[in-house]
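Blinded run. Sample ID left blank on purpose so nobody reads anything into the name before looking at the predicted structure. Input follows.
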Amino acid sequence: MPPFALARRLRAGETVYGAWCMVGSPIVAETIAREGFAAVVLDAQHGLWDVSALITGAGAVNHAGAAPAVRVPLRDFAMVSRALDFGAEAIIAPMINSAEDARQLAAAAKYPPLGERSWGPLRAMPLQGYSAPVDYLRDANNGTLTFAMIETAMALANVDAIAATPGIDALFVGPYDLATALSNGAAQDVQAQNVEQAIDRICTAANRANKIPSIYCRDAESAVAMAKRGFRFIIAGNDLTTLRAATTAQLKLLKG
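Blinded prediction complete.
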């Protein structure tokens, strides 16, 4: 792959589908990547990924021909730069509720003058094919992507300011937390009218700011529908739910 393939494709205007890995297995992530997904997200917020597995997983996804991305834990901006040093091409940060949250994300992810990321891409440079530090430094700010998750009522109210923050490359809808927040904890109906309206509002805000509209979807059918609504980086389910669905289908057939 060319260096920073995910950023190149998204900045060129392509619609890109990604997979999501919860179970913390580099082999599972690699296997999914080999099937042809352009990106595989390693979920270190709610998933079972520890630091050692993230290091191995990022390399496994890269070698399988996909772009590794990491969802970092809540407010763990220290993990942002570490994950990029491990070889992640994108960072998805949860609960970015304000322009200040967005600024902190950008500061951790981008080198000066855009941010404050400290130097040390020990694993990232060889994974991206760089041998000269100055070459990686020149390309990294544009090549590594920051996804600010919009998943609360506060984030929705501040969506334009978040999108306008220098160093933020994309808005990423977390539909289940957004549905929970907008229902005041009563439901997770991602198809409720107010949730659907909020999703469209986030997409519009991203496009208005020339940022990448992105979203998590529970399955491929939902992902295709969101592409038609204008989203360009779209997750099509996760490893655990895909495994359960495939196993259920097998057992249904076996039991007649």
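Unblinding after everyone has recorded impressions. The mean pLDDT is 97.
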